[in-house]
């Protein structure tokens, strides 16, 4: 359901650029609109692009259909499945609990969730869950996930999926992107808050910042403001046979409800509110935000493809990724699944927030690259 470690890395990078950052003026905005118009006309993009500097929105526009069968257009207020971008909400929720003295990043997981087997989970800390260094794996490709994905609507139902799976490595010794680690963080939030993960995030993040178009929508119910995802058809095993035409409704391909690992629905204006609230110290202190967004562990680089420049460094933080493009710091997260693609780039030093949401898969990165070229220099 969520992208692999390599895909996460690829979503956060672009070639190193030679010139200094420059402001996003009217010609650049016009060029951006023309560029995305071209992608939409060739059915390579459907969704929303929003670019802001501080609280001022410099550009925002929607393209494509939120629901093809009902001929419902995407609008600026449409909510999109943001997949693993939701890990940022989990990272902020954990930081709130730390600020409330209910938790420490160095706490052992089993001290909070004692029902977890000591022989597997005994050495894992909260920090290791956040930074993908726990040794836990990914659950979304497992047959056990496929068996419950259409009915599971609780964090605990996902906790039970991998509870007896052995670790991939000794905690703290390697880096391996893990959705299951973030499921366990959701369980920690539930234990310490005394309520559900969904209620906690709704109350302490969405309601606290007036994010009125963000929610944990359920796929077995029609949500009139949510975009339906449209997945690219699977290519046939025979590489010589072209894939079938058209896109498919993704409702039967992903989990029925999001989790602490991702799958929440948010609109682009809501995500801007989230970005602004973090930078202004409204959800957590500015000190805490700096801590959770500052890279902690380096992500191993995949091999450089032929003809491409070496990839810039990327580090995992606490629910956020941190990278540098031409010396400019970018923090945020991406998300992807069948019929889902999303990314938010926050430029804390320059003041920009860039949000690109799509109900097509593999649609966002060309737009992100285009905007990074403008902001970071070309």
Largest sheet data: 8 strands, antiparallel
- Work out the number of β strands: 14
Structural class label: alpha+beta
- The CATH topology assignment is Beta-lactamase
Helix count from the secondary structure assignment:
12
Instruction: Give the fraction of residues assigned to helices.
Output: 25-40%
| CATH homologous superfamily heading | DD-peptidase/beta-lactamase superfamily
The shape, in one word, is globular
How many domains?
1
State the distance separating the first and last CA atoms: 34 Å
Average pLDDT figure = 90
Beta content = 15-25%
Indicate the radius of gyration in whole angstroms. 20 Å
**Element order, helices and strands?**
HHEEEEEHHHHHHHEEEHHEEEEEEH
Q: Could you explain the architecture of this structure?
A:
The chain is α+β, with helices and mostly antiparallel strands and 378 residues long. The protein has a single domain, classed as Beta-lactamase (3-Layer(aba) Sandwich). The protein has twelve helices and 14 strands. The chain has helices spanning 5-11, 26-41, 87-99, 118-121, 126-130, 143-148, 155-159, 179-193, 197-206, 268-279, 286-293, 365-376; strands spanning 47-53, 56-63, 65-67, 72-73, 80-81, 230-231, 248-249, 265-266, 297-298, 314-316, 321-325, 328-337, 340-347, 352-358. It has an eight-stranded antiparallel beta sheet, sandwiched between helices. A two-stranded antiparallel sheet has the order 3-4. It is globular, with a radius of gyration of 20 Å. The two termini are 34 Å apart. The relative contact order is 0.22. Mean pLDDT is 90; it is low at 1-6 and 8-20.
């Amino acid at each position: 359901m969520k992208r692999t470690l390599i895909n996460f890395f690829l979503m956060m990078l672009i070639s190193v650029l030679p010139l200094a950052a420059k402001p996003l003026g009217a010609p650049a905005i016009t060029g951006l609109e023309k560029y995305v118009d071209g992608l939409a006309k060739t059915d390579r993009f459907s969704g929303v692009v929003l670019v802001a500097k501080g609280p001022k929105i410099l550009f925002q526009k929607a393209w494509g259909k939120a629901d093809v069968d009902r001929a419902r257009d995407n609008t600026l207020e449409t909510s999109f499945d943001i997949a693993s971008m939701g890990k940022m909400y989990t990272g902020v929720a954990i930081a709130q609990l730390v600020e409330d003295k209910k938790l420490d990043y160095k706490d052992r997981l089993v001290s909070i969730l004692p029902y977890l087997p000591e022989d597997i989970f005994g050495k894992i800390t909260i920090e290791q869950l956040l930074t993908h260094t726990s040794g836990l794996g990914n659950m979304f490709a497992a047959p056990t996930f496929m068996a419950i994905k259409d009915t599971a609507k609780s964090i605990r139902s996902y906790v039970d999926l991998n509870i007896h799976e052995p670790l991939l490595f000794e905690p703290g010794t390697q880096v391996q992107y893990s959705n299951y680690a973030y499921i366990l963080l959701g369980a920690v939030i539930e234990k310490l808050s005394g309520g559900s993960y969904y209620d906690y995030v709704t109350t302490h993040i969405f309601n606290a910042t007036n994010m009125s178009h963000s929610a944990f929508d359920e796929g077995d119910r029609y949500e009139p403001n949510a975009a339906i995802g449209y997945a690219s058809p699977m290519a046939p095993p025979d590489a010589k046979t072209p894939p079938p035409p058209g896109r498919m409704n993704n409702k039967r391909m992903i989990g029925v409800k999001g989790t602490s690992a991702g799958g929440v629905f948010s609109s682009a204006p809501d995500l801007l509110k989230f970005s602004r609230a973090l930078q202004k110290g409204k959800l957590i202190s500015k000190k805490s935000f700096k801590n959770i967004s500052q890279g902690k562990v380096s992500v191993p680089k995949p091999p450089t493809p032929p003809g491409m420049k070496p990839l810039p460094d990327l580090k995992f933080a606490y629910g956020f990724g941190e990278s540098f493009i031409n010396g400019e710091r970018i923090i945020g997260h991406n998300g992807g699944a069948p019929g889902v693609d999303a990314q938010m780039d926050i430029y804390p030093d320059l003041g920009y927030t860039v949000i690109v949401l799509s109900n097509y898969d593999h649609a966002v990165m060309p737009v992100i690259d285009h905007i990074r070229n403008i902001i970071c220099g070309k």
